[in-house]
Amino acid sequence: MGFNGVKKLKTKSRGDLITALDVGTSKVVCVIARVEDDGGARLVGFGHQGSQGLRSGTIIDMDAAARSIGQAVEAAEQMAREQIERVTVNLSGGQPLSQTLTVDVPISGQEVTEHDLRRALRAQGQADLPADSEILHSIPVAYSVDGARGIRDPLGMFGERLGLELHLVTAAASAVRNLTTCVRRCHLDIDDFVVSAYASGLASLVPDEMELGATVIDLGAGTTNIAVFSEGRLVFTDSLPVGGAHVTNDIARGLTTPLTHAERMKVLYGTAIPSIADEREIIDVPQIGEEYADQPNHVPKSLLTGIIQPRLEEIFELVRGRLEASGFDRVSGRRVVLTGGASQLQGLRELAQLVLDKQVRMGKPSGVANLPDHARGPAFAGVAGLIAHALRNPAEAVAASVDDVTAPGGGLLNRLGGWFREHL
User: Could you tell me the pTM of the whole model?
Assistant: First the structure.
C-alpha cells in the first residue's frame, strides 16, 4: 500500500518549472510556474477547461477525463511556450481518511539519531489501514522525549524513550490508480498527490491560522473536503461526497428546469440566507421541454432560496458532525476558511457561521504571482496550493509503500534522513 510516484525532497532552484494540475468535478486547471530569485513562484502558463468524466470527484469515464486534462495542459503549455513532463496533482475523491499513529521506541539514554527516527517511522507499516488503500501523506505531527511534548526536532537530544505522532492520510487505491492512468495518457508523470483541502489550506491560510488552529472547508462541485491545521501542520482531513452540483440538481428538480438553467439561476439569483425582499422579487424559470414557450414560469426568489438553503445547511451540519466525531473540533479553534467554487454563493459565509458557530472568512489563493484576474478567487485556491506544496516541501515523511519504508539503502528513510539534515 502506498503511492509509488516519485517524491521530491530537494528544494526547488531558481528558474525551475513547477506544474500543478487541479482535477475537479466541474473544472480542470493547469498552472505552470517558474521559481523566482526570492523563492516564490510566478505563473507562466495557465489552462482552464470544463471537466468531463468525473462525478463527486471520482472518475467515471477515463477517456473523457483524460481529454479534459490534456486540453488544460496543452493550453498552459502554449501560454508558457514550454513542454512539461511532470505534474503535482490534487485528489478530491477517493474517500481520503485520516489516522494518527502514536509510536514509542526505546533509546536507552543515548542521543537521538536518524536511525532512531527511522525505527519510529517504520511503525507506518503497523498502521491499521483500510483494505486496498494508498498512503498519500505521512506527516510527523509531534515528537516527545521521555514524555516531554512539543519537540520539533529531537535529533541530538538524550533520553530513554522517543515518541512520535504520525498523521497518515490514505485514499482508495482505485481512485489513485484511475487518476494516475488518466494523467499518464497525457504523457505526464506525477511528482506528488495532494489532498484537495490540504492544498487549499497551503494557499489560503495565513501563518497564524496554521499555527493557532483553523479548518479549511473546500466546497467543490462534487465534493466538500475538510482539512484541520494546527501548530503549522495538517492534523486531520475528511471528505463528503456532496457539493455545489447537488445544489444545482436540487434546483433543477424542484423547479423542473434544465440543469444549465438551474446552474445559471444559482449563480445569478441564488443565496444561502433568505431576506424579506425575496418574496417580492420574481424570476423567470424556463421549464423542461418548454424553454421557448411564450409564457415562461414566474416564481418568487424565495422559492429558489428555499431549495438552496436546506442543502447547504445539510452540508455544514455534516461537516460539523465529522469534526466533532474526529475529536479535532477544539484543535481547529474558532476559525474556518471557505474555499472552492461553490463557496462563492451569496450568504454562504453567514450560513456557515450560524451552523458551525465559528468565525468564517473567504479564502483566496496566495503565493503565486501573475495569476489571471479570474483565477484570484476561492475556486483557484487548490491549484495555487499545489504550487505551494511543490515549492515549499512541507515537513512530511513522504508517502511510500511499506517495502520502501523498511528497505535498506535508498528509499524513504534514507531520503528522510537527508530531509532532516537539510531542513531541521
Answer: 0.87
